[in-house]
Amino acid sequence: MTAKFNNAMFKNAIVRHPPTNFAEGLTSAALGRPDFAKAMLQHAAYCDALKRCGLQLTVLEADPQHPDSSFVEDAAVLTRASAVLARPGAESRLGEVSGLRETLRQFFKSFHEITAPGTLDGGDICEAGNHFFIGVSRRTNDSGARQLAAILEREGYSTSLVDIRGMKSILHLKSGIAWVGEKDLVVMEEMAGREEFHGFKIIKVSSRETYAANCVRVNDHVLIPAGFSDVAASLQRLGYSLLPLEMSEFEKMDGGLSCLSLRF
Ligand code: CIR
């Protein structure tokens, strides 16, 4: 089956090793304590998958001051033109942003910052071609969402806000949706009917497989958590080439596939 192609090809990704105190990060999942050695193996496999997609990796040192810092996606939003430093909604994660600034400077000339009282986690931001869905969640507030919308609109993107504060089963917008290319949007069942997604072709994810709604298109492949056969079959039917990855230890910390890297 031929792979579908995205217009924007990624060349780079930034990842950060999980620290040994990774299990002390925030979580609402009742899936038990993650096994650090296993998390490292899963992280290594994730990095290999990104390389297989053709990306050059910048691998940052583990940061034990911030147990959640391997979820690098939450600290920034990257566009074709600029880097936006986020302002994580969880107090314990605020310091993660400065740890990324210098690395991003090597790649981006144009910088923006979300400022107080705004809060914003990158996991709430879903790029879908020239459009960005911006989740308003327990982590991203209205001010943060509007600041980002204004930046993106100046860069020529359209934006829409998606309020997920009423949804208890997901932490971030991208815990429940993923854009995989063209008009194809993977959406958890509970959100599938929402009018914000009108105009997209919805690939519905049953409540049994919600965790797999957080999949990631990277060039010619879609990275997907292993073990979710219905979502995998739907994507394969549409011609996507999948790279399944074991994610159990990150799932225990509420982390999805997308949050382990910044891709650009
Ligand atoms: C947190 O609660 O902030 C981390 N334990 C998990 C963050 C996952 N990030 C993401 O899905 N974008």
Distinctive features:
264 residues, alpha/beta, L-arginine/glycine Amidinotransferase, Chain A, 3-stranded mixed sheet, 15 strands, 25% strand, globular, disordered N terminus, binds citrulline
If you had to describe this structure to a student in words, what would you say it looks like?
With 264 residues, the chain is an alpha/beta fold. The protein has a domain at 12-174 and 247-263: L-arginine/glycine Amidinotransferase, Chain A. It contains 5 helices and 15 strands. It has helices spanning 36-52, 98-105, 142-154, 229-237, 248-251; strands at 12-16, 56-60, 76-78, 82-85, 110-113, 125-128, 131-136, 158-163, 177-181, 184-188, 201-205, 216-218, 221-225, 241-245, 262-263. A hairpin with a 2-residue loop joins β12 and β13 (221-225). The longest helix is centred in the N-terminal third of the chain and has 17 residues, at 36-52. Residues 1-6 have low confidence and may be disordered. Residues 25-27, 68, 71, 73-74, 90, 93, 123, 171-172, 174-175, 253-256, 259 line the site of citrulline.
How would you sum up this structure in a few lines?
Helices cover 19% and strands 25% of the residues.
Layout: helices, strands, pairs:
Layout: E1 12-16, H1 36-52, E2 56-60, E3 76-78, E4 82-85, H2 98-105, E5 110-113, E6 125-128, E7 131-136, H3 142-154, E8 158-163, E9 177-181, E10 184-188, E11 201-205, E12 216-218, E13 221-225, H4 229-237, E14 241-245, H5 248-251, E15 262-263
Parallel strand pairs: 1-2, 4-5, 7-8, 10-11, 13-14
Antiparallel strand pairs: 1-15, 3-4, 6-7, 9-10, 12-13
